[in-house]
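This protein record is not my work; I was only asked to verify it. Would you go through it and say whether the fold makes sense for this chain? Here is the record exactly as it was handed to me.
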Amino acid sequence: MTPMSAIDAQALAVRAVGLTEADEAEAVVISSDTALTRFAENRIHQNVTEHDTTVSIRAVLGTKNGSASTNRLDDESLAACAAAAVAAASASPADPEFPGLPEPRPVTVREDTLEPIGFGPVERAEAVRSIVEQSAIRGLVAAGGVALSTDTVAVANSHGVDVGSKVSTARATVLSSGEGAGTGWASHFTPSTVGFDPAAIGDEAATLALRTSSPSDLAPGDYTVVLAPEAVADILDFLGYVGLSARSYVEGRSFMSGRLGERILSDAITIVDDALSAESCGLSFDFEGQPKQRVALVDSGITCTPVTDSYWSARTGMPNTGHALPAPNSIGPLPRDMQIAPGDASLDSLIRSVQKGVYVTRFHYVNVEDPVPVTLTGMTRDGTFLIENGRLTAPLKNLRFTQSAIAALGKVHGVTEERRLFQTMLGSALVPGLLIDAWAFTGQTG
């Protein structure tokens, strides 16, 4: 099915607003098209496509908000959804701090760069073949997937907000496994299939699987670490989730709370959220139809500002940075297109600078223990090595860790020039590799 155009999505959002009998109204249309080819044991086992369009309506009565949603797009169903939103607003408590829905502001709509029709099931199958071949010729088995998605998003409200855009992404993952508990991982994520090299990620995963065979133990303790970009993406993702929202800032749950303008991280760390950068693949507006701003979150280790939406902008007096999530939500605004500024090193040069330490390809099953210091717990996976005298030597069994991200990012002494883009829980993260003086490993996972 051809993805819904931005113009059609905008018309649908405007129609939904017009059907809502409230003091103020907002409609968000999300039309998603996904195509996925999965493989395991070196063969394709699933090939699926999915299409869905959802309309979410927010009704405002005074300072009361109510929401409802539907994926039935006829006028009768939209009117019923609008009535449900009005009923929800009537039953909701008033919020005296609600500033009302925002007025329209100019939005720069980015051009979509991916043509999903040109990368159909045959092309996905060929990509899988190239990935799997790299494991098969080495006597390994591979599992993973190749996926393409297109999201058409439109927002309209009763004040004249009327914006829409289409964004597409391509993602591939591969886990290669062999004898002796060796596993290797590689992934690809971009806003375009340009530069997607299936054989290269297949080779990367297979090479790691061979190198990690028969891993050794490592005693718990604090070690110098070199984190590959995919591991860094997890850290940044959780940093954004618990610490870079105006809501967590106001509620005292952020590492920034009461500490704006202080140097908290290493001066090698600069973090921005920038949906308009050439490397980003996110929308250029938020789910209130407000333009996303480039936000300097941390500048050379110094905390700058959290991201906001219309509600938290009004509460804090900070500018609206355009980071609203769909209503209703209990999270507040979040950064969804984060980046860590590049350094001047290579990953190999960081490894060569370490006398004894640990190299981490990626993390797995990461969770937050304490939000203010952003204490994370989880494990390494699919490519963990001992570093000795500037070289990767013995593969290591996967390691458990409990580590404050704030403390770790305060001890960064090397940043790679090359950065990679990864899909994250929040959206995407463009990140380098990092050399960190101390990382607390607490045991083995087997």
